[in-house]
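Our platform keeps sequence and structure together, in a single record for each protein. Such a record has a labelled line for the sequence and another for the backbone structure tokens. The tokens are whole numbers drawn from a learned vocabulary of local backbone shapes. The remainder of this section carries one protein's record, kept here as part of the documentation:
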Amino acid sequence: MKTDIILCGVGGQGILSIATIIGEAAMNENLYIKQAEVHGMSQRGGDVQSNLRISSEPINSDLIAMGGADVIISMEPMEALRYLPYLSKEGWIITSSTPFVNIPNYPDMAVINADLAKIHNVIAIDIEQMAKDNGIARSANVILLGAAQKALGIEYQKLEDAIRRVFGRKGDAVVEANIKALALGKAAQK
């Protein structure tokens, strides 16, 4: 088993929380894991990207080579396209369909959507609206994780267990909101 994942978005969107949940699930399965993070700005609005490599065999490098990513999970559609050169030919993009417009020359969404439509394996969902509609606005990132579950090759129950461990200290309400978010994302998988 080997899965190379690029997680991307902008600061404050919960990319590192997704990485923590995936990492916890992988470590609980006694898999090897390596992670490299790149933070633009440490506050909301800067580019945040993480390389996450999971394998049943030892991993030598924490960075993913061009064309080597099995999955790109992006909280923002333009960020998904930024890392497209890293996606393998059979790889998956799981992205929010809602832009986070943080630059003055943000590309037109019609252009972004046309570029995403050229890719064979894409799941693009409005996680922000789904989260608001379900009263879990702070868990939009976990909806995206649920949508990525099959592409990651990690059992759903393992991700749910990881959410319980990662968010357990924050209380039952936070745990249940994130489990609900994971289920919503799973239901949105194609």
In short: The chain has a mean pLDDT of 92.
